[in-house]
Amino acid sequence: MPAEAFRPNAATRQRSQLDNKISMKCVDDFRLTFGNREYVPIIIGGMGVDISTADLSLVAARLGGIGHISDAMVPTISDRRYDTKYVRDKLKFYKYNVANTDKSEVQFDLALLAEATETHVRRTMERKQGDGLIFINCMEKLTMNGPKDTLRVRLRSALDAGIDGITLAAGLHLGSFALIEDHPRFRDAKLGIIVSSLRALQLFIKKSARTNRLPDYVVVEGPLAGGHLGFGMDWAQYDLATIVAEIRDWLQAQEMDIPLIAAGGVFTGTDAVNFMENGAAAVQVATRFTVAEECGLPPEVQQHYFKASEDQIEVNTISPTGYPMRMLTTSPAIGAGIRPNCEAYGYLLDANGNCAYINAYNRELEAHPDAKRLKVMDKTCLCTHMRNFDCWTCGHYTYRLKDTSHKLDNGDYQLLTAEHVFKDYQFSKDGKVALPERAETA
Question: What gap in Å lies between CA 77 and CA 218, rounded to an integer?
């Protein structure tokens, strides 16, 4: 057996590092500081599409932490939550193009995109209570057949609608600060970036230097995170603690006081404490909130998360974005060969109207013209499947969710409240997870 077989992977290294450092402190012993304001150092990550709902983010803010909403497919979210008709009207307008393999004509109306973003953000902010903050997770890889223009609209509209902060995600965002540097809230709102390496952060700071604006925080996302990863298929060679330490030391050498947020595989409050005792200012967590009542996942899908085994969690390359993606192997999106729905959605079309799934679909259609049902194994129509909650992206430790709740008589697991999960992170010690009070059963 080769020596590589004995080399611990990312999960083993991270668990070993955390398990060997059981602290008597809890997360509530720390605070995340922005200026003269302090916050509970717990951030709920921005899971799209509408998995990190407004309701979920509002719980975090009410409890003094930070919650994210996501700008992934925001017209779709607006239709679902606020009874708008953006998707229906877009499909109606471009219906003539449905059978056309050329999707370059399928453009987003920028005024309507701004309206959808403002609706989602403003409605969320109007309901905010407590001393915490609400951020929006902005994904650069949602190129929307107009990468620069659509990104500018989403960023500026979120600021217009009063969002507390923007987390730049799914890409390096080397030009994103420049897109909003003339906005009146450019130096008022909190602006942060997600990176998975020191090199990525250095590139961002170098490219953004002329705006004379450093990020207010940096989310360091490790290889055990859910959904799209900032690594190649060699992700298991990396670990979050090492990356956090490398970035921490570089920032100190540069005399840059930027809070670091550790993310990816932070499953317990003790995990969080260990990162904060080693230089992180806060943690960003998401996996455990996928089974909260306030989460946007349908209850039947949440049960798949609860019941998942470790061998049902994989990192694959079926995302058209080009990033590896962690998901459940039982996801209906895997292998589904549905016709591209770009006229209704089209969020991943590049500037020329191309998408890797369209290419894969057309290849299979040409090879099997008489097939009643196509199978496309190497890519998936991410827009449609995320909209339908059929692409079950997840964190590495999703298989541990069953240990956070009670199994009911019917074999399902009791859903949790976001407040319960948040407070368990905030107050738990010794690597423990607090179970909820057992619900009454009929």
Answer: 27
Q: Looking at the predicted structure, is the pLDDT value of residue 239 above 50?
A: yes
387, 373, 383, 392: which is closest to 334 by C-alpha? 392
Q: What confidence tier does 22 reach under pLDDT thresholds 50, 70, 90? A: low
CATH number of the domain where residue 31 is located:
3.20.20.70
Q: Using CA atoms, how far apart are residues 334 and 437, in angstroms rounded to an integer?
A: 36
Cis peptide before 49 (omega within 30 of 0): yes
pLDDT > 70? residue 279: yes
Burial class (CB in 10 A: 0-12, 13-18, 19+), 312: middle
Q: Tell me whether residue 357 is in a domain.
A: no
- Determine phi and psi for 137, rounding to 5 degrees: -90, 115
Query: 335 pairs with which residues across the strands?
Result: 376
pLDDT at position 4: 36
- Residue 173: is its pLDDT beyond 70? yes
- Judge whether 286 lies within some domain: yes
Alpha carbons 58 and 80: distance in angstroms, whole number: 18
pLDDT score recorded for residue 6: 33
What confidence tier does 408 reach under pLDDT thresholds 50, 70, 90?
Answer: very high
Three-state secondary-structure class, residue 266: coil
Residue 161 resides in a domain: yes
Residues contacting 426, CB < 8 A, separation 6+:
26, 27, 28, 40, 42, 63, 65, 269
CA-nearest of 223, 267, 214, 241 to 27 is 267
Domain count, the chain: 1
d(Cα 200, Cα 208) in Å, to the nearest integer?
12
Domain assignment of residue 186, given as a range? 9-297+405-427
How many other C-beta atoms are found inside a 10 Å radius of the C-beta of residue 319?
23
Rounded CA-CA distance 198/248 in Å is 9
- Residue 273 lies inside a defined structural domain of this protein: yes
How close are the terminal C-alpha atoms of the chain, in Å?
Answer: 54
